[in-house]
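Please check the following for our workbook:

***
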Amino acid sequence: NLQVEMNESQHVMISYQWDVQPMMLQVRNKLKENKFKVWIDVDRVEGSILSAMADAVENASVVVVAMSEKYKNSNPCRTEAEYAYKLQKPIVPLLLDESYKPDGWLGALVGMQMYFNFSDASLFEANCPKMIKTISSKVYKQPEKN
């Protein structure tokens, strides 16, 4: 297990469309097992959803984006992802729909980044270690805030 020292206020944010929640809860659990602090809406949203989302993005050291056609077509998902992009947060894309090829605004957001295929439960165990390694490398590369 990788030991990760994260700033007390920072976390890995999981941005997803609700249809893939069971898989993203598994991702959350795996990240927590690896000592990451994780923000996911089911654990943390109180009060204004927009305000909670903004705080989550602002305090994220990394944003995990669960890509699918439904994610791309969801206004709240787009708001989260574009805000993360605007704040230059490192983004780790996961593919949650085998037939989806990132296009439109989501294609532009992830660009040429390698993504991890989580479209099937059988791929979860195979791709989790690679995802965790990538998240770790991005957490450590965060510039210090003055």
User: Anything to note?
Assistant: The beta strands are 11-15, 38-39, 60-67, 91-95, 116-117. DSSP finds seven helices and five strands in the chain. Residues 11-140 form a domain with the Rossmann fold fold (CATH 3.40.50.10140).
